[in-house]
Design a protein that fits this description.
mainly beta, 33 strands, globular, about 550 residues, 7-stranded mixed beta sheet, 9 helices, Immunoglobulin-like
Length: about 550
């Protein structure tokens, strides 16, 4: 296996290899273009054209203070102007698209380091997916063109450069992407004025209210955990809601934190989507006492605030739970210190993990580790407006989609750590490598089993597969008792959480040809090399 330093400059030197792969994915020869003008292939005149820029900025996250951030900004030179909605705080604008629309996005890199944009959960051509090989230099640009094929749901966009994703997201580069379709319109869901998106993050700050992205060895191992909740880019979030049923979209946009979402007054959550399309009427609304949301998972719920008294206040909280990592540490060695013993001199920092990325010179030293995984947090407060309650009918969820046409392909991936390095089947990220067991056929169902390793530095991992929707068909093993009831495995998904000792089987049928990625979405693990390529369809490069 080739060594990787994490430097994107080396990646850009492999442009000829990159173009060979892109040509194979497209099934035709392609002209080489410099990074300042690379693009996804044209798909006809777009219905909507968006100009999206990533650049440094400042934001008012806390009253009376300005915080340096990185942020996305966007304009709409062609098409519906409501396709872009401004956000609060430092998050990028919300992109509001409709199924079937042809979209062109002209992305400009105003950072002082390479970056690229990934459309998390979206079904787009491989060249439009935001692979790290397509990262553009400072001052460069990239054109994306795709037709919106996803069902109505809550998706995300964020950077995906090799070894720098965690720092860039932490500094502010992320945004919501909403898709709307006919099934949603027919379901009788609350109107747009009773729809609320909550992008949930945790951050660490210093006395000057500057974000602190310290990269101690513990941060690389566990992922960066903050002690301050930030919702939609704003601290101490408060919302006033009418006494009616609301559609709430929750997205975990944290680098590493897992949330156990619940209402402070004990009312259950009524889940209608895991992000990639409404549940079917056969699956029904999923009622849970709490919901577990791992990094970059999304859920949608219906909440009837008419059930509470006018003027009342209720909080969205993350309930306390035992850190699954500390539990697995005791299983293996008796203490977490034992897990780390003898490995402190090397490990995950070898894949660019000590690159401070967007936060530049964020403080030296090992302090400020943030709240531990599983600590209780109050995330946002909701005040019930005065007025008469408004009644609503239950949603008419759509008919089930046809079942996948399953083929004979089976895949297995062991998710774990070797020493302090995250691996997938013992491998780490190589820019263009695709192993034989990382190739999947197009148009027929593949069953892919992921197994959580219990050896070494065992901990939970949110696994994301680019370019497909999948169903979780079985979860077996040792999910922690205080999280098990909140795992929502219903419906189509693109990200799932796996614990040490668990086996999770998913079924998918890729529809887009070419090279995509699968990886742990703990961003520090991803930056540390816990990421691999997978190839959908014929024409894959030589096995890596």
């Amino acid at each position: 296996m080739k060594g990787r330093s994490g430097a994107v400059s080396g990646m850009l030197e492999s442009s000829r290899r990159r173009d060979v792969l892109r040509a194979a994915a497209a099934g035709a020869g392609a002209l080489w273009l410099p990074s300042s003008a690379r693009s996804a292939p044209a798909a006809g005149s777009p219905d909507i054209a968006i100009r999206l820029t990533a650049a440094p900025g400042v934001a008012s996250i806390w009253p009376g203070a300005k915080t340096r951030v990185l942020r996305y900004t966007a304009t709409v030179p062609k098409g519906r102007t409501d396709a872009v909605r401004a956000s609060t705080g430092y998050l990028g604008p919300t992109l509001d698209l409709r199924q079937g629309e042809r979209v062109r996005i002209e992305f400009a890199n105003g950072l002082d380091e390479p970056t690229i944009v990934h459309w998390h959960g979206m079904l787009v051509p491989a060249v439009a997916d935001g692979h790290p090989m397509d990262a553009v230099r400072p001052g460069g640009a990239y054109r994306y063109e795709f037709t919106v094929r996803n069902p109505g749901g809550t998706y995300l966009y964020h950077p995906h450069p090799d070894g720098r994703t965690g720092g860039q997201v932490y500094a502010g580069l992320a945004g919501l992407l909403i898709v709307r379709d006919a099934a949603e319109r027919a379901a009788g869901l609350p109107p747009l004025e009773r729809e609320l998106c909550l992008a949930i993050q945790d951050r660490r700050v210093d006395g000057d209210r500057e974000l602190q992205y310290k990269r101690s060895m513990m941060d690389d191992m566990t992922g960066v955990l903050g002690d301050t909740p930030v919702i939609n880019g704003t601290a101490d979030a408060r919302f006033t809601v009418s006494r009616a049923t609301w559609r709430l979209r929750f997205a975990n946009v944290s680098n590493a934190r897992i949330y156990r979402l619940a209402w402070s007054d004990g009312r259950p959550l009524h889940v209608i989507s895991a992000g990639s399309g409404l549940f079917s009427r056969v699956e029904g609304v999923q009622t849970r006492p709490y919901v577990v949301l791992a990094p970059f998972q999304r859920i949608e719920i219906l909440e009837d605030f008419a059930m509470r008294e006018p003027g009342a206040e209720v909080s969205l909280v993350s309930q306390a739970f035992e850190d699954p990592e500390s539990m697995s540490g005791r299983t293996d060695t008796g203490t977490m210190g034992g897990t780390m013993g003898g490995t402190m001199g090397g490990g995950i920092t070898g894949h660019g993990a000590m690159n401070h990325g967007a936060m530049g010179g964020a403080a030296q030293g090992s302090g400020m580790t943030g709240n531990a995984q599983g600590e209780a947090m109050t995330l946002a407060r909701f005040v019930i407006a005065r007025g008469s309650p408004v009644g609503s009918a239950p949603p008419l969820l759509p008919e089930p989609e046809p079942p996948l046409r399953m083929g004979s392909t089976r895949r297995h991936t062991l998710v774990g750590f070797e020493g302090m390095q995250g691996t997938l089947n013992g491998r780490r990220f190589e820019m263009t490598a695709v192993a034989a067991d990382e190739r999947l056929p197009l148009g027929e169902g593949t069953e892919w089993t992921f197994e959580g390793d219990t050896n070494g530095h065992a901990m939970p991992h949110p696994m994301h597969i680019h370019g497909v929707r999948f169903r979780i068909i079985e979860r077996s093993g040792r999910a922690p008792a205080d999280l098990r009831e909140g795992l929502v495995d219903t419906g189509y998904q693109d990200t799932f959480l796996i614990f040490p000792g668990e086996r999770v089987r998913v079924a998918m049928a890729p529809t887009e040809a070419g090279m995509f990625m699968y990886h742990c979405h703990n961003l520090e693990h991803e930056d540390g090399g816990m990421m691999r390529n997978c190839w959908f369809g014929p024409g894959a490069p030589a096995a890596g």
